[in-house]
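Run log // design_07
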């Protein structure tokens, strides 16, 4: 188990670093390709790399009809809509602000799991959701003026929230498929489906590639290979071995890393009010994942000294009933 946890931690770390760099890369090369063209180019590169990896492994599990439906939903939501929405949002918002808004996703995942998976709505979740969405409103207000693309209004913030919602749909539809199908194959199928969903922007991509400078093309290839093929693959690997809520906690680091990366690379920082809203949003996300108290789990030990009597002698090999009834809280998910 310790080896598995270490591999999951490494996979989650790779995902966080790669996804953080994606916000900066999108901001840098997005104006060259446009929102749809960039999404198509990124998914074509990522889908090709993942397909080669699947062919090299020579392992293929035929999905059932239900699994095909879930994979299609995951591909169109998380790969198609998410990428187009995020690319369009970063035409109006700096990378750090976009990352802070998108990372209300773990709250949406937890709220959706309360309905879809019947996990309930503990008080920390509800309080965190309120604080997180308040932070999102503050960010939207801070960025509602004229943006770098010349657009006014909270369109960029709303597009980021759309990306967070489609991220939620992607995770909820991906998790059941990972119970039977390898993570690499799940990522490859979803990415190819996502690329098909962005084909309406094929003309934009072809036009942009004809005039794009070499650094922009390199950025497009990087987005396809690292934040898409590699990072979505490591995410799926980690998600197949832990629950979605715990894995979502790791994305708290993404906005901070994005701000630290964007400052020297792009020379931009979020507005001060947006930073305040981001702090509120991330605090809400952290609070939403705070473990709820479960009364009655601990069996209090009788203080013998306070009672003024000694415990009766027991056989050393006899196990206390309270110990036998104590549940193992370290295990999560189905035991195999």
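design_07 sequence
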């Amino acid at each position: 188990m310790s080896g598995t946890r270490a591999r999951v931690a490494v996979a989650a770390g790779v995902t966080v670093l790669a996804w953080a760099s994606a916000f900066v890369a999108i901001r840098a090369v997005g104006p060259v390709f446009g929102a749809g063209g960039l999404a198509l180019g990124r998914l074509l590169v990522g889908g090709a790399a993942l397909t080669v990896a699947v062919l090299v492994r020579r392992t293929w599990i035929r999905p059932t009809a239900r699994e095909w439906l879930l994979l299609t939903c995951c591909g169109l939501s998380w790969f198609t809509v998410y990428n187009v929405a995020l690319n369009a949002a970063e035409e109006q918002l700096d990378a750090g602000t976009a990352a802070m808004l998108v990372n209300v996703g773990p709250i949406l995942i937890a709220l959706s799991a309360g309905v879809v998976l019947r996990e309930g709505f503990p008080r920390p979740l509800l309080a965190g959701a309120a604080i997180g969405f308040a932070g999102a409103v503050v960010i939207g207000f801070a960025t509602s003026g004229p943006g770098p693309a010349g657009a006014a209004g909270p369109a960029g913030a709303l597009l980021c929230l759309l990306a967070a919602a489609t991220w939620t749909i992607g995770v909820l539809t991906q998790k059941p498929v990972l119970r039977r199908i390898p993570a690499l194959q799940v990522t490859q199928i979803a990415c190819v489906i996502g690329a098909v969903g962005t084909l309406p922007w094929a003309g934009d991509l072809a036009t942009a590639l004809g005039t794009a400078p070499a650094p922009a093309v390199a950025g497009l290839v990087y987005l396809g290979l690292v934040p898409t093929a590699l990072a979505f693959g490591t995410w799926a690997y980690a998600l197949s071995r832990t629950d979605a809520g715990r894995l979502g906690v790791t994305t708290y680091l993404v906005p901070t890393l994005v701000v630290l990366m964007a400052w020297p690379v792009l020379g931009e920082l979020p507005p001060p009010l947006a930073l305040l809203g981001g702090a509120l949003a991330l605090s809400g996300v952290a609070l939403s994942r705070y473990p709820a108290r479960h009364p009655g789990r601990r069996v209090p030990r009788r203080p013998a000294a306070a009672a003024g009597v000694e415990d009766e002698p027991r056989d050393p090999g006899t196990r206390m009933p309270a110990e036998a009834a104590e549940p193992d809280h370290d295990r999560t998910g189905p035991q195999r």
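The two ends are 12 Å apart (CA to CA).
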